[in-house]
Specification:
Layout lengths: L1 H12 L1 H39 L3 E4 L19 E2 L1 H7 L4 E7 L1 E2 L3 E4 L13 E5 L8 E6 L7 E5 H7 L6 E5 L4 E12 L7 E5 L1 H9 L4 E2 L1 E6 L5 H12 L4 E4 H48 L1 H9 L4 H40 L14 H26 L3 H5 L8 H26 L4 H21 L1 H17 L3 H13 L1 H39 L4 E4 L8 H8 L4 E15 L5 E10 L3 H4 L4 E4 L9 E5 H7 L6 E6 L4 E10 L10 E4 H5 L12 E6 L4 H11 L7 E4 H44 L1 H9 L4 H39 L10 H18 L1 H8 L3 H6 L2
Parallel strand pairs: 6-11, 8-10, 17-22, 19-21
Antiparallel strand pairs: 1-13, 1-14, 2-12, 3-13, 4-6, 5-9, 7-10, 8-11, 9-10, 15-23, 15-24, 16-17, 16-20, 16-23, 18-21, 20-21
Length: about 850
């Protein structure tokens, strides 16, 4: 009880100094809890949506996927004949059965040809309006479509694009383009996560999406009262046979949820990873805070020991303060985490994914995880200072001698740090020398962890040398004030090392990712320059396949010398060694593709792969299956027949674009795949006539004006798009790393603030002999800057070594160019100096306000 009272008194006596440590705990816990609440809410939203929209039993064609996506490579969904609906209705336990049609391989445009598809990545769905849809949609204005010239749109899409009754829209599918006017607007009765939905009447949907009447993509079956979904499914299968896909509502919802869960899990664990990095940085802050508080209470600890307190009780007193700090910061962090989750939902809403706070999900595990993590991390971080406090002898403490220096512990620390650093460097070397990316990545991960731990442990040793160099370069210009700042930073190397290490962690990751990102862009750009021999690449950023009308529009552009079609076909391959690869992808293209992509070969000429009944295989596949030029490979085309193709070329694995691709001609594929099953084009490559590149570029864009789902890019555009995509990814990662850097800045602020208190008498004496307030504040700011730059140097150096090693692994995948983004590295280094200045503002201001006489009288 006495220990608890002492801890409470000390905690509240230093509440201002504890506040920054509490904020570090709060931020880390808030990010963990916010991530858990946000992803749980997303899961709840989709669970509700899929549960409500799924009929008791759904019947679809055998080729339909489990998650409900029914569109095939030819742009049209696999279908069921209308006769199956009548068969289903005869099954026992069926209350009703209704055929429906829908597709997501669509583009919907307004009268000005603006794309109405969501920008959030959610699907655009066009389907027939029926009773199952009426369970989740309520018509708020107008009426449901009742003719070929009518369409109904969901309210969210109408609001976003300012659509109203009577407005004309166009539905672009593989069949053609259908125009209609809005007859009604329907609002979701459940949360819509962002899909754009358009409804046609059933006959119009059949003609527009499939191109033939009397067929359906799905049959929605409702069970009679008292009949379970599982029983109904068995009865339906017994009636119609096994040639169809039949799923219960739970099976359909689970399949849909699995698609969403895979994406959410990636997001969840990435965000939690950055939260744990922030926790790691916070450990240094907490260690420094308690180390300095213990040092400032040395005499108090001596008195406690003199009147009978044991080492264990002193230790427990410090740990009890840490427990209070962790609990306080964690409780606030849980609340802040819920706020972060709501904020993330608002952000998602701004990009088109609607999430309602009505579905906000806070499970009991979220606060438990937040509290446990915050408290455990805080107590563990305070253990070493607490242990040192307990080792102070009463007489030494009463003399204010502090904790005795432990030379043996220092030597052990140095030895361990050097061993880890050398082991980390060795692992990075082995990663750089690896022949396979998988093996190298394991060495890289081990090297990153070991070298980071090694630098953290030997940080105090490095602090002396690095800060002296920085002082000689930066501080000497400030005269005596600069020299005093340097000595202050060197006074306690362990403290300086821990403070710099907190910044080092975040900045090392920034440097590493910057090197990797820049190298990827430079390598891909180099590959484009070397291999791409066409002027323009035309594709859909959302993955939409090309309609025949769009291909015709491109080929009709008079300024073009040639247009190459490119499509993908699924096939099973039986190789000369007798083995069968069931899921392979063939890249079918026009023969001119050999000019558009100058792919290296290790045997044969790629142009020969486009001869009749010919193909190419990649180098690794050829070695694995004993294939040489002239070998025969049996190709069983999906939705087609089998053919024996002759291998005319073996392509190199030392490429980036189309690495591992197997090529054949579209004409060869057409011999074995019926026209109505032939996949549509994924890409088009266009080459301008000599001297007409600029005119062809404009003409191509004009030709595709009616098809806004496709984008025309020349090589400059393509390189910029690649750079922008990697840049956006890096910016998102930098944003997440900012959490760790903010916590590190708090550590610098706390260290300086406590250091000022620790040096109160010294500051008073310096003021008494003539040091001005301005000089005092400058001294503290310079001390902060040099500590920040120390952490930046270690972090940037470590991160660049990681990035260079990672690039060696990327080189195994064909990304051969190492590029150090010096502007970014220099900007981060300079920015670190400003971080140091910012961190010193409050401590320097408080130091400048000290009363000289009171400071001198301080004991």
């Amino acid at each position: 009880m006495t220990v608890l009272k002492t801890s409470m008194r000390n905690f509240f006596a230093h509440k201002g100094r504890m506040a920054l440590s509490a904020v570090a705990v709060l931020l880390s816990v808030a990010f963990v809890c916010g991530t858990l609440v946000f992803t749980d809410t997303m899961n709840t939203t989709f669970d509700k949506l899929f549960a409500v929209t799924s009929s008791d039993v759904t019947v679809s064609a055998k080729g339909a996927s489990d998650d409900g996506e029914t569109t095939s490579g030819n742009g049209r969904p696999p279908v069921l004949p209308a006769s199956v609906v009548d068969q289903v209705r005869k099954a026992r336990g069926v209350k009703s059965a209704q055929g429906t049609v829908f597709s997501t391989a669509v583009t919907v445009v307004d009268a000005d040809k603006n794309n109405l598809s969501p920008t959030s990545g959610a699907p655009t769905i066009v389907g027939s309006w029926n009773g199952n849809d009426a369970r989740t949609m309520k018509i708020t204005s107008g009426a449901a479509p009742s003719g070929s010239d009518q369409v109904m749109v969901d309210a969210d899409t109408a609001d976003k694009h300012h659509l109203g009754l009577g407005d004309e829209i166009g539905v672009i599918t593989a069949v053609g383009t259908h125009t209609a006017k809005i007859s009604g607007i329907a609002a979701f009765t459940v949360t819509n996560p962002g899909a754009a939905i358009f409804y046609l009447d059933t006959p119009t949907a059949q003609r527009t999406l499939i191109g033939e009447p009397g067929v359906y993509t799905n049959i929605d079956v409702t069970a009679a009262q008292g009949v379970s979904d599982a029983r109904l499914k068995k009865n339906v299968v017994a009636e119609i046979g096994a040639g169809y896909k039949v799923q219960t509502a739970k099976e359909t919802a689970d399949a849909n949820q699995k698609e969403v869960a895979d994406l959410l899990n990636v997001m969840k664990y990435v965000m939690l990873g950055f939260a744990l990095i922030a926790f790691m940085v916070g450990i240094f802050l907490i260690i420094n805070t308690f180390s300095m508080l213990v040092a400032q209470r040395t005499r108090e600890i001596g008195l406690m020991r003199a009147i009978g307190s044991s080492r264990r009780q002193v230790n427990q007193s410090v740990l009890a303060e840490a427990l209070l700090l962790g609990a306080f910061g964690s409780v606030l962090g849980v609340g802040a985490g819920i706020g972060i989750a709501v904020g993330l939902m608002k952000v998602m809403g701004s990009v088109g994914m609607k999430l309602s706070t009505d579905d906000l999900t806070v499970t009991w595990t979220t606060p438990v995880v937040g509290l446990a993590l915050g408290v455990v991390v805080t107590v563990l971080a305070a253990y070493l200072p607490a242990r040192r406090a307990g080792k102070i002898s009463p007489m030494a403490a009463l003399r204010d001698a502090g904790a005795p220096a432990d030379a043996r512990a220092g030597r052990i620390r140095l030895l361990v740090g050097l061993v880890l650093t050398v082991a980390g460097a060795g692992s990075l070397y082995l990663a750089a020398q690896a022949d396979k990316a998988n093996a190298g990545s394991l060495w890289l991960g081990l090297g990153v962890v070991l070298s980071l731990l090694g630098f953290v442990i030997i940080g105090p040793l490095l602090a002396g040398g690095v800060i002296r160099v920085l002082g000689a370069i930066l501080l000497r210009a400030f005269g005596p004030v600069g020299r005093m700042a340097e000595r202050n930073a060197l006074r306690n190397p362990r403290r300086t090392g821990a403070t710099g290490a907190a910044l080092m962690i975040g900045l090392s990751l920034v440097a590493c990712l910057s090197v990797v990102g820049s190298s990827m862009v430079a390598s891909a750009t180099d590959q484009l320059d070397k291999t791409v021999g066409t002027d323009f690449i035309v594709q859909s950023d959302s993955g939409q396949l090309f309609t025949k009308q769009a291909v015709k529009a491109v080929k009709s552009t008079p300024e073009l010398a040639r247009v190459t079609e490119y499509r993908l076909l699924d096939a099973a391959l039986t190789t000369p060694d007798g083995r069968t690869s069931k899921k392979e992808m063939l890249n079918a293209a026009d023969p001119t593709y050999a000019q558009d992509l100058r792919t290296k070969t290790v045997a044969g000429d790629l142009a020969d792969a486009y001869k009749p009944d010919s193909m190419s295989v990649p180098e690794g596949f050829a070695k694995k299956h004993g294939i040489t030029l002239g070998s025969k490979v049996q190709v069983d085309f999906k939705d087609g027949t089998a053919g024996r193709l002759t291998v005319r070329a073996i392509t190199s694995d030392d490429v980036v674009i189309d690495k591992g691709a197997m090529y054949t001609s579209i004409a060869t594929a057409a011999r074995y795949v019926p026209a109505d099953s032939m996949p549509l084009d994924l890409l088009l490559f266009a080459t301008a006539k000599d001297g007409q590149q600029e005119a062809a570029y404009k003409a191509l864009k004009s030709a595709l004006h009616d098809y806004p789902q496709y984008t025309v890019r020349d090589q400059t555009d393509y390189k910029q798009e690649l750079k922008d995509q990697i840049g956006q990814l890096l910016n998102m990662i930098y944003g997440l790393l900012a959490l760790a850097i903010v916590v590190a800045v708090l550590g610098v602020v706390n260290t300086l603030a406590l250091s000022v208190v620790e040096r109160t008498r010294e500051i008073g004496l310096m003021r008494a002999i003539g040091l001005s307030r301005r000089q005092l504040r400058r001294m503290i700011r310079l001390e902060s800057v040099v500590i920040a730059l120390f952490g930046a140097l270690l972090g940037l150096g470590l991160g660049m070594s990681w990035g260079a090693t990672a690039q060696k692994l990327l080189a195994l995948e064909g990304l051969n160019v190492l590029e150090i983004p010096w502007p970014t590295i220099i900007a981060v280094f300079i920015g670190s100096a400003f971080v140091g200045l910012f961190a010193a503002l409050v401590p320097a201001f408080r130091a400048g306000r000290m009363n000289v006489l009171n400071a001198i009288a301080t004991e």
